[in-house]
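Much of our argument rests on the idea that a fold can be written as discrete symbols. Part of our work consisted of pairing the sequence of a single chain with a tokenised description of its backbone. The amino acid sequence and the backbone structure tokens for this protein are reproduced below.
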Amino acid sequence: MAVWDDLTGQAEAIAIFRAAAARTTTGDGASGATTESASMTHAWLITGPPGSGRSNLAFAFATALLSPGTPEGDEAARRQVDARTHPDLTILSTEGVIIKMETVKEVVARSQYSPSLSRYRVIVVEDADRMVERTSNVLLKALEEPPERTVWILCAPSEADLLPTIRSRVRSVRLGVPSIEEVAALLSKRTGVDADTAERCARQAQSHIGMAVRLATNAEARARREETLRAALGIRGVSSAVVTAARLLAIAGDDAKSFTAEQDAAERAGVLRSLGVEPGQAVPPGLRGQLKALEDDQKRRATRSLRDGIDRILVDLASLYRDVMMVQLGRESTIINRELAAELRVASSATEPAGTLATLDAIALARHRIESNVAPALALEAMLVTAIRR
């Protein structure tokens, strides 16, 4: 099975990367980009909306480049890439809010090494938009003077999220939003859920592949999403808007904890095991610094996970009020949250389309405010006040 077979909904982008990987097997170098669709270059930028499969495509391309003699992906290379253990693969990512400059400097230094097993050393930068400007400038220097056998693959929501100087040194490939049918087929194949559940999860996730997989495999996530939408539909005054904002924050917190708790426990157990500390044994003072560093990393991940959880709630609320608008405009056949059709009809009769549009604008503003470090509770309260229905 080719490494590209696990991807969905991005036929044009897959064709570009597949052709570039095939070109490397003919002996062409990685430097000197051309305008040909099959050309290979030293730096790529994959852009697309969240859930479009940017990282999946980046690692599929990395697998093809690291596979000896075949652009379809060697099985041994695929296992190593999946486990993130291939010696010629470096991953630059963060579980915090931003990517640290020290981390970028370490990866840039590693990019100068020659590949040990493959034709290329491949560096995948996930969430490249999480670099501040001075950190991006460190990466820029590496892209300006790349080693002959190093390939950079950057991922970001859009080209506008990166500095113009970086955009000018990479080849951009834009991804679209896969269809609900394509995501549903992927869910059935990957998780084994029945066709109805797959369609429902793909639709409610709005074709966001990662979220669709989570909804399909986690009943609690589905329940939290439904509670979120019903809570918003129940707002009748300022006091209930404030109470609902607090509840939505609690739901986001519960979702973040469920997402990170198991990983945190496994990481802590692994560190203690590597330090020779038995379960239940007190940590010696000389080793507490290493455990403290792990806890700090986990706190940063928890902060990001909470922000991501709040943003997911706002995306779900946007789908809800988009549905209200569709019902008001007589387009009920296009609604996303079909399971709430009766409640949507009631909500649509309680206000005019202009009021619903104001709520959608308030949701977009709340997302921007939270991204700008406004207190989430205040941003949610201000947004939900616009959602009051009599």
Notes: The mean pLDDT is 88. The longest helix spans residues 288-328.
